[in-house]
């Protein structure tokens, strides 16, 4: 009974880390634009989230390994998340909004401690179950938070998501003090520089990391970036932004099952990746040509589905060529590298949007996707893979991170 309580409490705390952060994502760019923020500045604010993860994720993982404790880092992450929401709530100053979003990125970087502590509640054979459960909690928090943000703003104003997020964050901070961690700590070999040097020389990991940087650039410049701004410009109301979330996130989730059961077994990893990137690029580039709500939602669905094929596939491919004893190092490296995309995509999209209009950002990341497609065509020639690739290699491994 106590063991079950520990698991459920941890899942609740995990939900309370992500829910407040995604509650305001669909309305965040329009909110900053309503305060007078230019697209360049909006891009900088959006990119700060990825920059903090890029800088902090590996150091937090290494330091928590050396100290053999995770709970203090989890409490710290919950506190920083709360602080971020409260700053958003109590100020309209664009400089403080930048600081608050950077703090949200720092909070997200502590997720590495969550993903180490939670599996300790399970037996060795149940680790995949643990990672699957906690990954589901993240997706659930994202989906619920983003689904209601537009309606909340239309009913109670721009500040309402930050107020609700702040209240949930306060509850999360309090509950985080009660999560269980073994007194002896969790034994995990810290990342060693020599292992890091070996891992970064693995060509497949570097190729996959580069593709992931591009994929994250696309999604954080569009769905988690400027898509809402464009939708409002073509006639959507704030309350209707909920439909943008539904039309993107539902196909995005379905795509994971489709990728594992249909696309990869029949086409192989690299061919599946090539098709997914090409489709994601195509739908991103045509967005600025869509001016009706119905077609916009249809293209949102296709975009969500295409990107939903890419992320779990890349996650599995990032460690499949790595020796088991070095996979934790490889995963940490991969997650730190793809944060470059979370930073760079919105940063440059914001600049292009300011210079040439909001369509420019969509063209920019769409072209990046075409570059990724071209790279995959070249790289796949060196991988003699058959069509009958085991589904587990991509699907199960995709559960190992967020």
TrEMBL record:
Keyword DNA-binding: no
Keywords: Membrane, Transmembrane, Transmembrane helix, Transport
Pfam families, per the entry: MFS_1 (PF07690)
Highest taxon above the source species: Bacteria
Subcellular localization, as worded in the UniProt entry: Cell membrane
Occurrences of domain Major facilitator superfamily (MFS) profile (ranges): 6-384
Transmembrane segments: 7-27, 39-60, 72-90, 96-117, 129-154, 160-180, 208-231, 243-264, 271-290, 296-315, 336-352, 358-379
InterPro entries: MFS (IPR011701), MFS_dom (IPR020846), MFS_trans_sf (IPR036259), MFS_Vesicular_Transporter (IPR050930), Tet-R_TetA/multi-R_MdtG-like (IPR001958)
Membrane-topology annotation of the record: Multi-pass membrane protein
Protein name (Swiss-Prot/TrEMBL): MFS family arabinose efflux permease
Organism whose genome encodes this protein: Neobacillus ginsengisoli
């Amino acid at each position: 009974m106590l063991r079950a309580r520990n698991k459920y409490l941890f899942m609740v705390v995990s939900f309370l880390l992500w829910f407040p952060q995604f509650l305001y994502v669909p309305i965040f760019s329009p909110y900053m634009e309503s305060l007078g923020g230019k697209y360049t500045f909006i891009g900088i604010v959006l990119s700060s989230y990825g920059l903090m993860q890029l800088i902090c994720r590996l150091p937090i993982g290494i330091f928590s390994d050396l100290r053999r404790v995770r709970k203090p880092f989890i409490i710290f992450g919950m506190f920083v998340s709360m602080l971020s929401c409260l700053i958003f709530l109590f100020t309209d100053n664009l400089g403080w909004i930048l600081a608050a979003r950077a703090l949200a990125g720092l909070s997200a970087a502590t997720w590495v401690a969550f993903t180490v502590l939670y599996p300790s509640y399970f037996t060795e054979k149940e680790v995949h179950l643990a990672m699957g459960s906690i990954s589901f909690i993240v997706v659930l928090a994202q989906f619920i938070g983003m689904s209601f943000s537009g309606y909340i703003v239309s009913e109670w104003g721009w500040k309402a998501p930050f107020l609700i997020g702040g209240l949930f964050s306060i509850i999360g901070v309090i509950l985080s003090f009660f999560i269980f961690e073994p007194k002896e700590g969790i034994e995990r070999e810290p990342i060693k520089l020599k292992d890091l040097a070996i891992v970064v020389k693995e060509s497949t990991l570097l190729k996959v990391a580069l593709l992931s940087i591009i994929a994250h650039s696309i999604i954080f410049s569009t769905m988690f970036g400027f898509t809402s701004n464009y939708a409002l410009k073509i006639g959507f109301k704030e309350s209707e932004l909920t439909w943008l979330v539904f039309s993107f996130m539902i196909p995005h989730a379905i795509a994971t099952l489709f990728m594992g059961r249909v696309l990869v077994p029949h086409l192989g990893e690299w061919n599946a990746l090539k098709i997914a990137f090409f489709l994601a690029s195509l739908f991103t580039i045509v967005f600025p040509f869509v001016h009706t709500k119905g077609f916009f939602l249809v293209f949102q669905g296709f975009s969500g589905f295409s990107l939903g094929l890419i992320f779990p596939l890349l996650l599995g491919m990032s460690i499949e060529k790595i020796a088991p004893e070095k996979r934790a190092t490889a995963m940490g490296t991969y997650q730190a590298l793809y944060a470059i995309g979370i930073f760079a995509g919105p940063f440059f999209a914001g600049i292009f949007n300011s210079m040439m209009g909001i369509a420019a950002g969509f063209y920019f990341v769409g072209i990046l996707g075409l570059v990724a497609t071209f790279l995959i065509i070249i790289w796949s020639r060196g991988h003699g893979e058959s069509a009958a690739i085991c589904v587990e290699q991509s699907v199960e491994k995709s559960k190992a991170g967020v």
